[in-house]
Specification:
The structure holds two protein chains of two kinds. By secondary structure, chain A is an all-alpha fold. Helices cover 64% and strands 0% of the residues of chain A. In chain B, strand 1 (164-165) and strand 2 form a beta hairpin. In chain B, helix 3 crosses helix 5 (100-106) and helix 3 (43-67) packs parallel to helix 7. Classes of the chains: A mainly alpha, B mainly alpha.
Chain lengths: 387, 216
């Protein structure tokens, strides 16, 4: 580490103003602060000083995603060998198969996304933002394993340029960039992200629980399989155990909002029970509500994407409303619109759009309540002297 | 004003070329967006639509400008609509007679040229206060600039969404997944949101070229 520090200090002057390579200042700065905690601290204004800066916060999320990614890799291999009827594989060879399938997607997602981020920072003379570290990790986890790599590249480029950079970069985006990438693929190349040909590597077909669900309970896998994640699906979304591990880390470090996660679960269950009580019409309506939490991307989306601090609601009350509506609408879309089996993606993007509105009304209600209180006190004070 | 102004005077040329640059009706004034989303899936209807709007805007401006001193101010919108509607019906009939297929593709949007904000905008803002010839030039310029944006959007939408241009195949059949290749048409390009995104990108490019448009 010391050698690295000394090397950086040695080459630093040429990147400073007036130096030979001052044009590439932002690129250098990006690498330096990625490797070491920056020395600069905020000097003025009232700030909470904390050693955890944006890059470290992002690292926590990346760490929380690791269980999902590792399990996802193993599950890719497991589903493949299960379909192939090959039972001779060991844990390691199963994982290796999935690893080799998933790694190119991760590499492409990071290479394209970071390339664009660096280019934009360079052109604008900004410092490089680290938001993409998380986005680049989530994008592979919400794609089917059979997705062609050029589509991943295109979707990532779309998400970073249209979803983030034109709004001003990290922290200014309206929608979650990773979900925007998935939505891009979903609308541009629907055959590569839905149906039953894309979820298992190398041409085997296997439907996800979501696409079987409209037919009713009988076609769904066992609850334990769905909980542990031994089902076909997007790479990182299948195992609820891995997602819970990630959620625990996010909640423990305070990076993700537990309010959004819990109210989301509550929303999904509430609407699920409501449909159970109403019944009829649609056999999807009568499946047990907790199935909705186990199927598809709802759990993954609630934990890792609905809690995105930039695009979710900012006020504390707003978070409850935002989370609840997210969970509730996912179930509504799943049950009533068979054309969009994965409601979670569209709902989170929709709720991202409404998050500022929710915040606006929460703040307005707060102002009104306090104004009324002041008015009430003033009235009481007037009455007291007259006694 | 005894001296006759030449047709290609500097002022008249400017009237025609300004809409292509810093007073573009679509990318700067953001008018006529609805039809830009609807008729740009393919290049051919976009070209026809651009031509129709150019003709209607030009002649409507010219005619209203001739009548400008006799139209009572209070009912001017009705008079304008009568003129525009007659021209649109003319265009519609001509399209039906000579390019029936395109006319069917454009369906209601030919009729809806009446409500195109660019036409009313040019009549209200320019033709009512200017002579017929400059009004004609201004109308034609604005219509053509609208058509230009339509053609740019439709070019990308047809190329990326269908792999063709004006119906001719550009992306070879053998590239497609069906034929053993890797390529796939971008389905989103056929949907209206793609036109909105493309328009946004055109505005972005336009503003980075012409720095005068960027607000401080």
């Amino acid at each position: 580490m010391k050698i690295l520090r000394r090397f950086l200090d040695k080459i630093k002057p040429s990147f400073e103003k007036g130096g030979k390579l001052s044009k590439f200042h932002s690129t250098f700065e990006g690498f330096e602060s990625f490797l070491f905690v920056p020395k600069t601290v905020t000097a003025s204004g009232c700030h909470i000083r904390d050693s955890v800066d944006l890059k470290r916060t992002m690292s926590v999320v990346v760490l929380a995603l690791v269980p999902c990614m590792l399990f996802g890799m193993w599950n890719v291999g497991y589903q493949h060998f299960l379909s192939a009827g090959d039972t001779s594989q060991t844990l390691f060879s199963t994982f290796l198969f999935g690893f080799l399938k998933v790694l190119p997607i991760i590499v492409v997602s990071y290479a394209v996304g970071l390339g664009i981020e660096f280019a934009f920072a360079q052109v604008r003379g900004h410092e490089i933002n680290e938001g993409f570290l998380v986005t680049g990790m989530i994008i592979p986890l919400i794609m089917p394993v059979e997705i062609p790599l050029w589509m991943v590249a295109l979707a990532t480029a779309f998400a970073v340029i249209i979803g983030k950079e034109i709004f001003g970069g990290t922290g200014m985006n309206i929608w979650n960039p990773a979900l925007l990438a998935r939505a891009f693929v979903f609308f541009s190349y629907p055959t590569h992200i839905s149906g039953d040909k894309v979820w298992i590597a190398d041409g085997y077909s296997g439907a996800t629980p979501l696409s079987n669900a409209p037919a009713g309970l009988s076609d769904l896998p066992a609850v334990s399989d769905m909980f542990f994640g031994l089902i076909p699906g997007s790479i990182g979304e299948t195992s609820k155990v891995a997602i819970l591990l990630g959620a625990a880390l996010l909640i423990f470090t305070g990076t993700g909002s537990w309010k959004i996660m819990f109210s989301g679960i509550a929303g999904a269950l509430a609407v699920g029970y409501l449909f159970n009580a109403v019944g009829g019409g649609n056999s999807y309506m009568s499946i047990p509500p907790y199935y909705h939490l186990l199927m598809g991307g709802l759990a993954f989306g609630l934990v890792f994407m609905a809690t995105d601090p930039v695009s979710s609601a900012q006020t504390e009350t707003g978070k409850w409303i935002y989370g609840f509506l997210t969970g509730a609408l996912v179930v509504v879309i799943r049950v009533f619109n068979p054309a969009y089996p994965e409601g979670a993606m569209l709902v989170i993007l929709l709720m991202n759009t409404f998050a500022p509105l929710i915040d606006h009304y929460v703040v307005a209600a707060n102002i009104r309540r306090r104004r009324n209180r002041v008015a009430y006190r003033a009235k009481q004070n007037k009455e007291i002297p007259s006694n | 004003m005894s001296q006759k102004e030449p047709l290609f005077s500097e002022k008249n040329i400017k009237l025609f070329t300004d809409p292509f640059n810093h007073s573009n009706p679509v990318t700067v004034l953001v008018l006529g967006i609805c039809s830009a989303l609807a008729v740009t899936v393919k290049l051919q209807p976009a070209i026809v639509m651009g031509l129709s709007v150019t003709i209607v805007t030009g002649f409507a401006s010219c005619i209203i400008s001739m009548l400008r001193n006799t139209i009572p101010n209070r009912i001017r919108i009705i008079v304008q609509l009568v003129v525009v509607a007659s021209l649109v019906i003319l265009v519609d009939q001509i399209l039906k007679a000579y390019v029936y297929d395109v006319s069917k593709q454009l369906s209601v949007f030919v009729g809806l040229i009446i409500t195109n904000c660019i036409i009313m905008g040019r009549i209200e803002a320019f033709a009512l206060g200017n002579k017929p010839l400059p009004s004609l030039i201004d109308g034609l310029g604005n219509g053509a600039a609208y058509g230009m944006i339509l053609v740019i959007v439709a070019f990308f939408r047809e190329l990326l969404g269908s792999g063709t241009l004006l119906g001719f195949r550009i992306v070879p059949e053998s590239f497609y997944v069906k034929a053993g290749g890797f390529y796939e048409n971008n389905g989103m390009m056929v949907l209206p949101p793609a036109a909105l995104i493309l328009l946004g990108i055109i505005i972005w490019v336009h503003r980075s070229i012409n720095k005068k448009l960027v607000e401080k």
